[in-house]
Amino acid sequence: MGIAIVAGTRPEILKLAPVFRSLKDATLDPVWVATGQHGDLAEQAQNAVGIVPDIVLDGGWDSRSLTSLSSGLLDQLGSWVAGHQPSAVIVQGDTASAWSGALAAHLNKVPVGHVEAGLRSGDTNNPFPEESFRRLIAPIADFHFAPTRLAEKNLRLDGVRPRQIWVTGNTIIDTVLDMADRVRAPAILDQVKPGERIILLTAHRRESWGEGIAGICRAALELVHRHPDIRIIFPAHSNPRVRETVEAMLGAADRIHVIAPLAYPEFIAVLKASHLVLSDSGGVQEEAPSFDVPVLVLRETTERQEAIDAGVARLVGTDPAVIVREASLLLTRPSAHGRMASRKNPFGDGKASQRITDILARKLLAEKELRQAG
Ligand code: UDP
Q1: Measuring from each residue's beta carbon to the nearest atom of ligand 1, which residues come in under 6 Å?
Q2: Are 270 and 319 part of one and the same domain?
Q3: What is the value of pTM for the model shown?
């Protein structure tokens, strides 16, 4: 059996698709295991990047409970890994699927590759539970694919051996570059009038549910009130805890469009057309610099400090006064906006998946030869 790729959420699918393709090109026989952690969002992402899963887990857990989800995933992935003995299991990032895929492999003595290893916010409550999941994967992973030097440093500080870490770039840049020529303008862009500037808004983090999301919505209302030439497009996450607040507060607002999650080629089309992004998403912080779009990060901490250091993103939290102040600055001062746009993307060069494939091919071959010799 070849290498198993375990993925269940939208970002994992978007970030592992180029790795899957690259492994396939290298005839390493990858097998895509869809955990089903995200339902419709996952299917939308798989369709966008041309993934047809080889295996789909049965599900049956209560996805509103992190313990039910994690134990259900661990149980089903554990059985699958034990029964099929893949040559390695690759997980990505910081989700329940990633943690359970890594642990299921580790407990079956199958090597674990962690893509996007080493991101740290330094606060296990922020983002929750992502910071814990990625930290828990570190001690059991065998191959740590760090997207940046900072991530590499974080892993070393955690005690990971340097010879198990490779700085590869983030695979989302591979996906972004692959998609850049295949974007598809969604119908919502037809509603943008000449001369209007688009603000793309996304918010879904668990720690923002309730007050945080409400603060973000208040900021959106104040921004359209103050700036008559802006239009806010908000593809709201399908999670009901997010949608209910957002639809109640923004559903009837003028020049704010709360829409269903966009397919990736459509999302990238809106991102490209945007003047500014307000987002608590990890992936969006990584993608926006590729299109010279500044990001105001709607969180108190970020594990993507590279974006802050490069000057392409700024942390603003969820306090409406701060969001409105910082966004207004970028809307009214072209020089401030210009300083945040037109910077080099600090997250990668589009070749991360090829690097990961080369490393895995070399390492797995060396292990096979060692086994045969022994
Ligand atoms: N995304 C998308 N459609 C949308 C909103 C986001 O395809 O309507 C993509 C986005 O481009 C990014 C990923 O989803 O690559 C981010 O997912 P999310 O914000 O859910 O997760 P995070 O990156 O914060 O883990």
Answers
A1: 10-11, 14, 172, 202, 204, 235, 261-262, 264, 267, 281-284, 287
A2: yes
A3: 0.96
Query: How far apart are alpha carbons 25 and 332 in whole angstroms?
Result: 48
Among 10, 12, 120, 130, which one carries the catalytic annotation? 130
Strand, helix or coil at 28?
Answer: coil
Phi, psi of 62 (to 5 degrees): -95, 105
> Do 165 and 225 fall into the same domain?
no
Residues linked to residue 276 through DSSP beta bridges, in sequence order: 199
Is 121 within a domain?
yes
237 is catalytic: yes
Report how far residue 208's alpha carbon sits from residue 230's, in angstroms, rounded to the nearest whole number. 24
CB crowding 203-216: b at 16 or more within 10 Å, else e: bbbbbbbeebbbbb
Owning domain of residue 136: 3-169+351-373
* 306 is known as an active-site residue: no
Same domain? For 110 and 154 the reply is yes
In a domain, 365, yes or no: yes
- At 178-222, the pLDDT tens digits run 998 899 999 999 999 999 999 999 999 888 888 999 999 999 999
In a domain, 137, yes or no: yes
Q: In the numeric block, which tokens belong to residue 371? A: 């086994």
> Tens digit of pLDDT for each residue in 331-349?
999 999 999 997 889 999 9
Nearest to 205 by CA among 290, 115, 103, 129: 129
Marked catalytic residue, from 12, 116, 266, 303: 116
Residue 50 lies in a domain: yes
Which pLDDT tens digit goes with each residue over 9-53? 999 999 999 999 999 999 999 999 999 999 899 999 999 999 999
- CB neighbour class for 181 (10 Å; exposed up to 12, middle 13-18, buried from 19): exposed
Task: Tell me how many domains the chain contains.
Answer: 2
pLDDT given for residue 58 in this prediction: 93
Output the pLDDT for position 16.
98
Contacts of 271 (CB under 8 A, 6+ apart): 200, 277, 284, 287, 288, 291, 293
Q: Is 38 a known active-site residue?
A: no
Edge-first strand listing for the sheet containing 313-315 = 256-259, 230-235, 197-202, 276-279, 295-297, 313-315
pLDDT of residue 319: 97
Give the CATH number of the domain where residue 247 resides. 3.40.50.2000
User: Which ligand 1 atom sits closest to the C-alpha of 285?
Assistant: 23
